[in-house]
Amino acid sequence: MKTRRQKKILDLITKTEIDTQEELQTRLNDAGFNVTQATISRDIRELGLIKTASASGKYKYSPNATKEKENITGKFSSILIQAAHSVDYARNLVIIKTYTGMGSAAGAAVDSMEMSGVIGSLAGDDTLLIITRDDETASRICENISNLIGKNK
């Protein structure tokens, strides 16, 4: 229910200019969500919504793109931490060894992090290959991932 409600909140604030919690509460109630002001307040905080100036000069609720990206990156970092057990590189290639069946999850996590200098990745059952533009980028990414997963190459 919470996930559906928060998804509806994001849908509402992207389609209409909502400038008060009361207005948001009314629209949610109209959509079939029976919510209190306290629930709205919690959802706004959890979603990281901010108030921005609208075209009409009023302030409206908007998604915080920075916080959204941080949350996504944090979630994918967590997946990578759980999936990977070693990392190494050779020239412009980074190899991440994962637990069996976790290669694709690690690949999706790395792809979602949008690391600069990465051309692409290829995931197998227990291995992820990251192709970078140059040797220095591979070294940097290997070091960053090694620090992230707590393993030395």
Provide structural commentary.
The protein is of the alpha+beta class. It has two domains: 2-63, Arc Repressor Mutant, subunit A (Orthogonal Bundle); 67-149, Gyrase A, domain 2 (2-Layer Sandwich), CATH 3.30.1360.40. Helices cover 52% and strands 22% of the residues. It has six helices and six strands. It has helices at 2-15, 21-30, 37-47, 65-83, 103-113, 135-149; strands at residues 50-53, 59-62, 84-90, 93-98, 118-123, 127-132. The strands form two sheets. The chain has a four-stranded antiparallel sheet with strand order 3-4-6-5. It has a two-stranded antiparallel ribbon with strand order 1-2.
Secondary structure blueprint with pairings:
Layout lengths: L1 H14 L5 H10 L6 H11 L2 E4 L5 E4 L2 H19 E7 L2 E6 L4 H11 L4 E6 L3 E6 L2 H15 L4
Antiparallel strand pairs: 1-2, 3-4, 4-6, 5-6
Helix pairs in contact: 4-5
CATH class of the largest domain: Alpha Beta
**Any guess at the CATH architecture of the largest domain?**
2-Layer Sandwich
Domain count: the total is 2
Task: State the distance separating the first and last CA atoms.
Answer: 43 Å
Structural class comes to alpha+beta
Q: How many runs of DSSP E, i.e. beta strands? A: 6
Main sheet makeup? 4 strands, antiparallel
Order of helices and strands: HHHEEHEEHEEH
Gyration radius, in Å: 21 Å
Percent of residues in helices comes to: 40-55%
Strands in their spatial order, largest beta sheet = 3-4-6-5
In DSSP terms (H or I, runs of 4 or more residues), the helix count works out at 6
Beta-strand residue fraction: 15-25%
- Unreliable spans are none
CATH topology of the largest domain: Gyrase A, domain 2
Rough outline: elongated
Mean pLDDT score, rounded? 87
